[in-house]
Structures are given as C-alpha cells and as structure tokens.
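Handout, section B. The chain below has 133 residues.
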Amino acid sequence: MVETAMELARSLDRISQKKLKHDIVRHWFQGSEPYFDFFANTLHDELTWFQFTFRGKSICWNKLDPIVRTGVTTDLAMNDVAFYSASKTVQLDIEINEEFFRFAREILSYRKSEGLFAAALHVLADVDITPHS
C-alpha cells in the first residue's frame, strides 16, 4: 500500500528531543517508512536548522547559510563497507530538486499547525524554485 502525503505527515512521530551545546535543542521525528525523518535544531524556540529526508533524498536549510538545498543521502548505500545507518551524509544537488522540494513542502503543510513544521514550511515558502535562464 502506498501512503498518501497526509498519511506520511501524520506518521512523523517525535523520537527524541535533546539539548546540544549552547542551548541548541535537536528535535527528531521519524516516519512510518525507513529513511523518513525530520530533524530540526532550535535556539530559544527559534528554528536554526532542519533536514527532511525520505527514501534517500534530502532537503535542508541552515540559518547561518540560509539557502535551501536538496541532495541525495547515503541511507541506501548498502554496498559501502563503512556504512553505518545512524551516520548519513548528503551529496548536494547542483540545482534544487523541484519534485522533492514540492513533496517536502506538501508533507510539512499537513503539520503546519505545529511550531517546528510551520517554521520549516515558512522557510520553504520563501524559496523560488522556478528555473532561471
């Protein structure tokens, strides 16, 4: 059965919330599918970073370098002998993956009444993904 975007959004459950250094808090939500996560960092309840991953694709943003980027994760790279599922890296796309961008925005929109998801959605709302010549 293929889940709808709404079902996927609803499946994102809070796994943990822990304080990192300098009052930064890391929030982790995991969805119903493997390799489906939403991570966010906050500083005094303000979003400073997020990463949304789904099936080996990623979209991320950092307040210090406020450019939304998409990429491909190493989640599905099982042929790497150094692979450890808890450590993923992202190879950034040269241009934003418009389809994945829209997908992430749709998932987040179903949780727009919740602070972290609303903040990430606000970041994505300001991004122009129309092709530039």
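Note. Residues 105 and 125 are 8 Å apart (CA to CA). Compare this with the example in section A.
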